[in-house]
Amino acid sequence: MLACGLATHFVPSNRMLLLEESVKKVDTSNSFVVCSTIDQFCQQPSLKQKSSLNRLEIINKCFSKRTVEEIISSLEEVASNSASKWVAQTIQYLKKASPTSLKITLRSIREGRTQTVGECLQREYRMVCHVVRGDFSRDIFEGCRAILVDKDKNPKWMPPRLEQVHDDAVEEYFSRVDDLEWEDLDLPVMCSNGRIMESKL
Fold it and tell me: Domain limits of the chain?
């Protein structure tokens, strides 16, 4: 949760009552004061052996590459120098996935890093609308056929290779749906005061 940025602090359960008592004494809504109060009870969580955070160095090295092709190439380089089952499985999963889906997902994740929650929801809504409508690709239906209907687990993606999915094709997934029956997501604008809390990892 911390590494994903979904949580800002880790407080062990045996310190929660102490934290609660301290927070009750805080007589301000100033986020700096609230954060510093919570910080007094925080600690680094211990990692389970199978935790992805134990692979964070490899994840950061490989998945920080600019394109999906470069990510896979980087993973293959790591695999050639290591017997990591996780790396081999990750390469296999990426190579079996829809090339179009991989590219639009990477783009969505990258854009989301600098966007508000509302902007992320709108971007993902547009992307999912185009996918479900089959506007630019029928890969979602082909994936459902291969996994759920025929169960042959052998989808025929179109286009079949990453290098055939061009940036302009990816761009289309993030455009407003040109259909009055598919209204754009219109969220109220939320204002944010004070400090933006950041993950502790």
Answer: 1-46, 50-95, 97-188
